[in-house]
């Protein structure tokens, strides 16, 4: 099993430090900046060997070059966006497997937030590193993709078990919950989760990772094919892309 640690960075980013115990290999997922990674490595006594990037945004790659220079770490990132990943050594894409010691990640192309976004799924550890594709109770903004693309990308997670831990890259859950209630306010699981999120945040606790099972029950962006949610936004669940597009656009303007 991977040993996975959460590192807060910038204002609301989470970086993930991942150690494969049999080999001692250590990867950081989406290092926004180097300093908090260095501090965590020093505390844990771990040696960084890999950097795994999900997409090119600065708040996911800003620490790449400094960490690579210091640790000679191997930078792994999306083949579809290699030219925008600083220091990339290994390009991976849809359907490929990336081996980290005794564990392996299945790689998925998940365009929508950016055109070259990927996700890493470590099935033996029930761990999904999805960057800015799926958030707790939300999903990434569509900067470089269409609603149809993003809905298809999120659909790639359908085959993963409910227990899968969703290691997304931001603490956006509380505002996502406020929005989710505006389109799915009759969902009792969502109401309960929103309360739990408020409690956790009031105590200064992180709400990430969540599980895919929780997201399936409460995340409106995974529920665009739910008849009640569709009705709430005046659309038909038989066209989930239209429902998805509508709620994504409402979220873009939600304050
Ligand atoms: Zn991003
Ligand atoms: Fe981000």
How is this structure best described in words?
The protein is of the alpha/beta class and 255 residues long. The protein has helices at residues 35-44, 58-61, 64-71, 147-155, 173-183, 188-202, 212-218, 227-232, 240-252, and strands at residues 3-9, 13-20, 25-29, 50-52, 74-78, 90-92, 97-100, 103-109, 118-122, 127-131, 134-135, 138-139, 165-168, 210-211. It has a single domain (3-252), classed as Metallo-beta-lactamase, Chain A, CATH 3.60.15. It has 9 helices and 14 strands. The strands form 3 sheets. It has a 6-stranded mixed beta sheet with strand order 1-2-3-4-5-6, with helices on one face. α5 (173-183) runs antiparallel to α6. The longest helix is centred in the last third of the chain and has 15 residues, at 188-202. The protein binds zinc ion and fe (iii) ion. Fe (iii) ion (FE) is lined by residues 57, 59-60, 132, 169-170.
Characterize this entry briefly:
33% of the residues lie in helices and 24% in strands.
SSE blueprint and pairings:
Blueprint: E1 3-9, E2 13-20, E3 25-29, H1 35-44, E4 50-52, H2 58-61, H3 64-71, E5 74-78, E6 90-92, E7 97-100, E8 103-109, E9 118-122, E10 127-131, E11 134-135, E12 138-139, H4 147-155, E13 165-168, H5 173-183, H6 188-202, E14 210-211, H7 212-218, H8 227-232, H9 240-252
Parallel strand pairs: 3-4, 4-5, 5-6, 10-13
Antiparallel strand pairs: 1-2, 2-3, 7-8, 8-9, 9-10, 11-12, 13-14
Helix pairs in contact: 5-6
The structure holds zinc ion (ZN) and fe (iii) ion (FE).
